[in-house]
Amino acid sequence: MSNIFVRYGVIEGFVGPMASGKSSALLKRVDPLRWIPGKNFIGFKPKTDNREKHCRSTENFINWIHIPANEPERIFEYVNQSHDLVAIDEAQFFDKKIVEVILKLQKLMKNIVFAGLDSDFRGEPFGAMKELMFHSNELTKLHAICNKCGEPAYYTQRLIEGEPAPYTAPIVSIEGKGKKETYESRCFKHHVVPGRK
Ligand SMILES: [Zn+2]
Questions:
Q1: Distance (Å) from CA 191 to ligand 1 centroid
Q2: Which of 73, 76, 114, 127 has the largest count of CB atoms under 10 Å?
């Protein structure tokens, strides 16, 4: 990565499984802009829970704006000329319209930096991540550590009541329906998806 902190019209992505440090990498990437006079950034996350009342949250130094996951185009209600860089975290949860949104931001000569899970618990492309990874001008694939063996982990293992979730389980969490769900980072060998062809 070059030593330039804002690169207009450039799309940068950080992807990987759970606990691979994607969000930390995004924060580290945006951080220098805080110290450069005249440079401005804005950050977005998808809001997947309709019950959630607050539409802003501050984590570390970014005042995240939570946009309904199925309406990523609402990002444009907030982005203005003053913003040099647009950060998008948890990009995998956004509707596929996020691709158009990011390409439009690129046309507006924003520097876009996104982070997200590249694959779902089945090991398949998560949401629009496949397209976003294609459109990325710079892409960093991160890995975690396998909970079973300590080797590099590239996959996210979903467990329902401690057992590997079957391939046919819904992508969206079923927590709250009496089942306890957990997620672990796993290597290929230990990533188990019963019913996967
Ligand atoms: Zn392993």
A1: 8
A2: 114
Active site residue 90: yes
Taking the CA atoms of 52, 58, 59 and 63 in sequence, report the sign of the dihedral they define.
positive
What's the 99 CA to ligand 1 centre distance in angstroms? 33
In order of start, what are the domains of the chain with their CATH numbers?
11-142 (3.40.50.300), 143-197 (3.30.60.20)
Q: Which residue has the tokens 């496949």?
A: 130
pLDDT one digit per residue (tens) for the chain, 197 residues? 445 799 999 999 999 999 999 999 999 999 999 999 999 999 999 997 665 555 677 777 899 999 999 999 999 999 999 999 999 999 999 999 999 999 999 999 999 999 999 999 999 999 999 999 999 999 999 999 999 999 999 999 999 999 999 999 987 676 666 788 999 999 999 999 999 98
What are the DSSP calls for 94-161, one per residue?
Answer: S-TTHHHHHHHHHHTT-EEEEEEESB-TTSSB-TTHHHHHHH-SEEEE--EE-TTTSSEE-EEEEEET
- Whole-number Å distance, alpha carbon 186 to ligand 1 midpoint, is 5
Active-site residue, from 12, 90, 100, 138? 90
Q: How far apart are CA 152 and CA 90, in angstroms?
A: 21
